Amino acid sequence: MEKRTDMRAEALDTLIDIERNKKLSHIAIGETLMRNQFEKKADRAFYTRLCEGVTERKIYLDYILDHYSKTPMKKCKPLIRSLLRMGAYQILFMDVRDAAACSEAVSLAKKRGFGRLSGFVNGVLRTLVREKENLPVPDKKDDVKYVSITYSVPEWLSKLIIEQYGKESAEKIFASFLEARPLTIRTNLSKTTPEELEKELEEAGVKVEKGNYLPYAFTISNLNYLGKIAAFRQGKFAVQDESSQLAVAIADINEGDFVLDVCAAPGGKTFHAADRLKGAGKVLSRDLTEYKTELIEENKDRMHYENVEVQQWDALEEDESLLESVDVLLADLPCSGLGIMGRKNDIKYQMTEEQLGELAALQRQILSVVWKYVKPGGQMIFSTCTLNKGENAENIKWIEENTPLHLVSIEEYLPQNLKNRTGSQGYLQLIPGEDTCDGFFISKFKRPEAK
Ligand SMILES: C[S@@+](CC[C@H](N)C(=O)[O-])C[C@H]1O[C@@H](n2cnc3c(N)ncnc32)[C@H](O)[C@@H]1O
C-alpha cells in the first residue's frame, strides 16, 4: 500500500507536468519511468494506467466532477483538479478500493500544502462514491455534446467524425479508442519465420496471438521491456500496427527494386520494404530532421538491413537526381493522426480544425513534388494514419486530377476479411471499432508506362 501511495504522487506530478508544460503524455510518463525505474511491474502498470486513463478520459471526468463540486473543474487549482481527476478515475474505472482512492487523495492534498482544501477533495470524492451507480448522463438529444462528453473528445472533433462517418460509427470509433490497444508486431521474414518467432517468443514467456489480417503479424502481451527480448534485439520483428503493415503489403516489391520512402521515420514501412527486398535492391529512407533520421538509424542498427540508406531530406524540395527512377514510392505523409488517437492520447486535445486544413495542404505540396520520382510503370503508395476524409479521399481525388498517376486495384493483396470494400477502386479506409486495427488509409497509384 505504501508503494501505491508513491505511485499516486508520481502520477500527480506527471499529470501536472502534462497540463502545465503542455508536455505530450507519453513523453512525461516515459521520463518518469526512466528516472525512477520502478522495480515492481504492478507499480509501473498502476502508475501508467492512472496517468493514461486520466488523460484519455479528461473531458468525461470533468463533466462528472462538475456535478458534485461547487467549484467547476476549470476554476480549480491545477493540483486540486488533477487530484480530483485521479480520484474519480480510480473510483470509476480502476479496481481500487474507493476508500483508498479518497483517503490517498486527501493525504496528497495535505502533503502538497493544500490542507485547507483537503475537506473539499474529500467531500467531492465521497459524494461521487455514494452516487456512483447513479451518475449523470449527457443529453442524448445533442449528438455532438453527447459523443464529446461520453468519449472525452473535443466538440469540434466529435462533430467532424459524426459528419464524416455518422453518429453510430463515430461512437464505435471513439469507444474503441478507449479500449486497451495490443502491441502488434511484424515478423521480419528475411530473418525468421512466423512459426519460429511465435515459438521463440512463447519460450521467453511472452503471450502471442495471431494477427487478424496478415500471416506474419502477431499481438504480444505479458512482457516487461521489449529490449529484454532476444528476438527483438536480434531484429527478428518490428513493432508495427497491422494497418501500417498493410500499406507495404499492397505494394508489389520485387527483389532488386529501388524503393524511396519520403517521410520515413521511425522506419516502420522502410524496414518492411527492405525485408521484402531480401537483400537485393535498395530502400532510400528520408525524413526532415536529424532527430528523425537518427530514429531510423537506430532501427537500422537493430535490424541490420544493409540495403537501407538513411538521408535527411525535405520532401518539399525536388531532388532532380531521382526523377523517374523509383520502382516503389512510399508516401506515408504527415497527417492529423486521428486514426491513432487510441495510442496517442494527446492528439485529440492538441489537434485543431485549422491544422487539419493545413495538413491536407502540406500533403498536396509534398505529393506535387514526389510523384515525379516514380518511374514509368512504377507505383506510389499514399497512406496516412488518419480518419479525416479531407486528408484521404479528397487527396486521392487530387492526385488523379493533378498528376498522371492513377489508382489501381489493391483487392488481390487484401486479406479475405478486408475484401469487397473499396479495394478494387485502389484504396481502403480502415476504421477502428469496425476493423481490429488503427484508423488508417492506404491507396495505390501507378504511373503509366512510357509510350
Ligand atoms: C506518418 S510519419 C511516417 C511514419 C513512417 N512512414 C513509418 O511507417 O514509420 C510522417 C513523417 O513525415 C515526416 N515529415 C514531415 N514533414 C516532412 C518533410 N517536409 N520532409 C520529409 N519528412 C517530413 C515527419 O517527421 C514524420 O516522421
What does this structure look like?
The chain contains 18 helices and 12 strands. By secondary structure, it is an alpha/beta fold. It has 4 domains: 2-134, NusB-like (N-utilizing Substance Protein B Homolog, Chain A); 143-177, no CATH class; 184-239, Alpha-Beta Plaits (2-Layer Sandwich); 242-446, Vaccinia Virus protein VP39 (Rossmann fold, 3-Layer(aba) Sandwich). The strands form 2 sheets. Strands 5, 6, 7, 8, 9, 10, 11 and 12 form an 8-stranded mixed β-sheet that branches. A hairpin with a 6-residue loop joins β2 and β3 (217-221). α2 runs antiparallel to α3 (41-56), α5 runs antiparallel to α6 (98-111) and α8 (143-150) packs across α9 (155-165). 45% of the residues are buried. Bound molecules: S-adenosylmethionine (SAM). S-adenosylmethionine binds at residues 244, 263-269, 287-288, 292, 314-316, 332, 334, 385. S-adenosyl-L-methionine binds at residues 263-269, 287, 314, 332.
Low-confidence stretches: none
The helix fraction, in percent, is 40-55%
The CATH class designation of the largest domain is Alpha Beta
Bound molecules: S-adenosylmethionine
- Assigned CATH architecture of the largest domain: 3-Layer(aba) Sandwich
Total helix count?
18
Provide the domain count: 4
SSE layout and pairings?
Elements (H helix, E strand, L loop, with lengths): L1 H19 L4 H12 L4 H16 L1 H11 L9 H16 L4 H14 L6 H14 L11 H8 L4 H11 L1 H11 L5 E5 L6 H10 L3 E4 L6 E5 L8 H4 L3 E3 L2 H8 L8 E4 L6 H10 L4 E6 L2 H14 L4 E5 L13 E7 L14 H4 L2 H18 L3 E11 L8 H10 L3 E2 L19 E4 L9 E7 L5
Helix pairs in contact: 1-2, 1-3, 1-5, 2-3, 3-5, 4-5, 5-6, 5-7, 6-7, 8-9, 9-10, 13-14, 17-18
The chain binds S-adenosylmethionine.
The site of S-adenosylmethionine has 17 residues, from helix 14.
